[in-house]
Amino acid sequence: MNEGWQLYIVQTAAGVLYTGISTDVARRVEQHRSGRGARALRGKGPLALVYRCEAGDRAAASRLEYRVKQLSRQQKLRLVAHQPDCLASWLTQNG
């Protein structure tokens, strides 16, 4: 797989924000929508992809995912509102 890893945030119908990583975000979001993705999202649709960004290799993507999952809901909402191109620098300033 030559495709780089991306971090994404999906919002459920109830407004819950779910963070994940994938090399194919469109495929992964479709898996979530069809109930074949993360158990936490099953039956929570409709789902909306609200943020995505490049995250480097698998290790870097996992580190970014961990950092985003540590953010408060308000911080995640700010992240979605700002849509930063460089998540790592945004987290340094806002996380």
Distance between the termini: 31 Å
- The radius of gyration over CA amounts to 13 Å
- CATH architecture descriptor: 3-Layer(aba) Sandwich
- Strand fraction band? 15-25%
The residue ranges in which pLDDT falls below 50 over 5 or more consecutive positions are none
Overall, the morphology is globular
How do the strands of the widest beta sheet line up side by side?
2-1-3
SS field, number of helical segments? 4
What characterizes the major β-sheet?
3 strands, antiparallel
Question: Strand-and-helix sequence, N→C?
Answer: EEHEHHH
Classification by helices and strands = alpha+beta
Q: Any overview of this molecule?
A:
The chain has 95 residues and is α+β, with helices and mostly antiparallel strands. It has a single domain (5-94), classed as GIY-YIG endonuclease (3-Layer(aba) Sandwich), CATH 3.40.1440. The chain is built from four helices and three strands. The chain has helices at residues 25-33, 58-69, 73-82, 87-94, and strands at 5-11, 17-22, 48-56. It has a three-stranded antiparallel sheet, sandwiched between helices. Strand 1 and strand 2 form a beta hairpin. The longest helix has 12 residues, at 58-69. The model has no long low-confidence stretch (mean pLDDT 92).
